[in-house]
Amino acid sequence: MHLFYTPDIHSEFYTLSEEESKHCTRVLRLQQGDTVYLVDGVGGLYTAIIQHTHQKRCQLQVIDKQIEYGKLPYVSHIAVAPTKNMDRMEWFVEKAVEIGVSEITFLLCEHSERRQLRLDRLEKIAVSAMKQSQKGYLPLLHELTPFHRFLQKSAPEHTFIAHLEDTATQDIRSYFKYGQPHCILIGPEGDFSSAEIQAAYAAGVRPVSLGQSRLRTETAALVACHTLHILHDIYAPL
């Protein structure tokens, strides 16, 4: 399946962006009359026929549309403090999108080593991962958000914090409810501060463990994402 990202598609006829046109004609070497598929990032999957090949303006005609293509049966939200080395955070975004994630928020914490973020770069990686894994939904990526501000906006009954202190002993399975949204907070390499952990508890957020191993930030975030995915598969109604 040759899949292209077309977030602004609204009619029967569509012209691919210059980047997607180049990929279609010069990399994939598709020709007039070939069938391609388009995703809008919000569940729309379109079947289209190439009407005119051009390396900057490839023109298509849509012949079919599916809605809610690849819709996840759950909402998973990972809120993570980005690492100093952005390659590691880019890796996390790519793999989380491939597995299936609804939202990613980047947290600014007391021990954060990175205090600036290029969200546009991460969004491009997310789009590429969505196309590669043939998904119909592009996860929401949120700007760098101060930890305490995030707590103010979170729903405590659906939010959990993974940290290294002794109080985080229960795994997410203990609190998991099928069909409910789940948000897991992952701290920086130096972990959340004691004040941040206490603020989370005061807001009603519960601690969870991701296992016995001490994990890197991006590994912990991916483990949280994959755990939610597996739990929804295990507890899905027959």
Would you give an account of this structure?
By secondary structure, this protein is α/β, with parallel strands linked by helices. It is built from 6 helices and 11 strands. It has helices spanning 18-27, 86-99, 119-132, 147-153, 194-202, 217-234, and strands at residues 3-5, 13-15, 35-39, 45-52, 59-66, 76-80, 103-108, 140-146, 159-162, 182-186, 206-208. The chain has a 6-stranded parallel β-sheet with strand order 8-7-6-10-9-11, with helices on both faces. A 5-stranded mixed β-sheet has the order 1-3-4-5-2. β4 (45-52) and β5 form a beta hairpin. α2 (86-99) runs parallel beside α3 (119-132) and α2 (86-99) runs parallel beside α6. It is elongated.
